Amino acid sequence: MPDFFDTFLDNIIELRGIRQSYDGGKSYIIEGLDFLVEDKPAQGQFVVILGASGAGKSTVLRYIAGLQRPTEGTVLVKGQPVDEAPRVGMVFQQYSSLPWRTVLENVALPLEYQGVAKAERLARAEELIELVGLRGHEQKFAQYPTLSGGQLQRVAIARSLIANPDVLLMDEPFGALDIDTRLQMQDLLMDIWHRIHPTVIFVTHDISEAVYLADDVYMMKPAPSRFTEHVHIDLPLRRNRETKRTDRYVQLVREVEDRMIAITSGQ
Ligand SMILES: Nc1ncnc2c1ncn2[C@@H]1O[C@H](COP(=O)(O)OP(=O)(O)OP(=O)(O)O)[C@@H](O)[C@H]1O
User: Fold this and answer.
1) What CATH class does 4-87+165-264 carry?
2) Which CDD domains does this entry report, sorted A to Z (predicted)?
């Protein structure tokens, strides 16, 4: 039975009846996949996707970003086909900045593509650079080792946010970072999310990271894959390192872990 308020909420992301084949329909790596994320304007949502390697997590993000079409099925963002709903930002695990451009130019890039005047786009880029804690690095080239791995991901996050996306897709964005930087970036991302409330769809292999960040965790079974499990994370909205010491956090990590083990072992 749908919740009473569900009738008033649109889905910001809607994937229905998705099938994906790479061999002309002989076999399907994704089969019967449905995924609905409701819109919560001015509140946002933090959704984390977990699944074994090769389950199709990146593929789901590529559908939502409009980078790939499924063999069958419907993909809607804010009720529209993805090609007509362009306000989607994406952050990848690999550093994706243009190394021959400065931090400021990299962050401003999406607005340059949109034809926004230079003074305006650089002013907006400065705001985002402040938001991600990169003040003082604007004129450095966005390349390693001039910038550290964590700083390069900050550039990527700032760039993904500059065009005011309704949806921010993050594909293992902290996967390549050392543990200290990773924990710092989790807190930075939470802080940003509380300020600007996009709907975030975040892929990770790290269950403790998933529980720390998410409102909801969705789990994919191995191929032919689809979402089979969902855990709502009922931790307080504002979280910090202390949250990880609470009984509820530990309990949720265990619950998600148990469900992942059951899914991947086919139980
Ligand atoms: N162009 C392609 N041709 C054939 N198979 C493909 C193609 N693109 C993706 N696949 C397969 O689709 C499956 C899902 O890939 P995807 O990258 O989405 O998985 P994933 O869950 O993100 O994996 P990981 O956690 O390892 O990043 C994989 O088995 C992959 O080999």
Assistant:
1) alpha beta
2) ABC_NrtD_SsuB_transporters (cd03293)
The interface pTM score, or ipTM, of the predicted complex is 0.96
- The residue nearest atom 16 of ligand 1, judged by CA position, is 56
Pocket (CB within 6 angstroms of ligand 1): 22, 29, 51, 53-59
Nearest residue to 213 (alpha-carbon basis) of 177, 176, 174: 174
The residues, any chain, with a CB within 8 Å of residue 120's CB and separated by 6 or more, are 111
Q: Which residue ranges does the chain devote to CATH 3.40.50.300?
A: 4-87+165-264
Strand partners, 45: 199
Distance (Å, rounded) from C-alpha 44 to C-alpha 166?
9
Q: Measuring from atom 2 of ligand 1, which residue has the nearest CA?
A: 22
Residue 88 CA to residue 197 CA, distance in Å, equals 13
pLDDT above 90 covers what percent of the chain?
Answer: 64
